[in-house]
Amino acid sequence: MTPPEQHDRPLSGSNGSQGVWHDDSTDKVSTESSRAVAAVRAVDAEDATLDFAEPLAAWLAGDDWVTRIRHVKEMTDQYGKGLISDVTARCIAIDQAVLDACRAGSGITQVVLLGAGMDTRPYRLHLPGVAWFEVDVPAISYLKRQRIAQAPAHLRPYTVARTRCLEQVPLDLARSLDQLRPMLIARGFDAQAPVLYVLEGLVYYLSKPQNHDLFDQLPAAPGSQALVSCIPAALRAYVNDPAVQERVPRFRVIAPSWQTDLETFRETLGNRWRITEEVNLFDHAERNGRRLARDPEIDREPRTVAESYLVLKAC
Predict the structure, then answer these.
(1) Which contacts qualify for 101-109: CB closer than 8 Å, 24 or more apart?
(2) Range of the structural domain that residue 173 is part of
(3) Which first-to-last residue range defines the signal peptide (predicted)?
């Protein structure tokens, strides 16, 4: 299905069911993070100088978060200059990596997205032969399912999955990892066939032991791959610097959440997975004629603090 509009600006009344965000049972931290990430993608997609479409992202984020991110982009003078956030650069890069991994003849016909949040890939990427599984904590899985079902008429054409099937797996990986395999299989996952795992913006929120256990337990038949994004040690050290936190108070909130960086992640894989490629997102953006917007509060060379994504293959 070809999207009818490449740059679908969210309408001012697009979030008519805002009350869904105030459910007391919702994991507020995870939900706010997933909404913020969706809002960044939505606002970047409003810039007609960028070849990037995300018609569902604003609806999934909600008007409040979209307004906040618009304000940040306007204050930092990013509109109309072809600048994109690191979040959007990561999304674009992993989009292409997913398409490459699932190309005809690769043998991969199933994708498991871990920590799915408000991701929209099964609605955007044309993968008619691929079974798609989204894993996230139950609160986010529920909210996303509800938001998709409530989408207004002008967005409904975008709520049709372009994959062979789309299954949600409500599971907290940090607490119930042993349930991942049986829950996937119950939804049609073939543990004997190659799979592509996508872990975008996830592993640095897990501790080193948690990442080790995760990659040790992931079902990985021969030919399986994983796409993993991770922050560099330089960025993690920067936000943990007390002097920096004094100047930028928001880093005090971020720092405790980031438990793993690229260097420590490499040590978690054991002998079941090996890294075959590392791509710095600053370099990737430049190679594709894009430029990353700088965070004015990070006083470092952009490339040294840019996130990377890794291509892993099962051994």
Answers:
(1) 101/196, 101/225, 101/227, 102/127, 102/129, 102/130, 102/196, 106/194, 106/223, 107/193, 107/194, 107/223, 108/194, 108/195, 108/196, 108/223, 108/224, 108/225, 109/164, 109/193, 109/194
(2) 86-314
(3) none
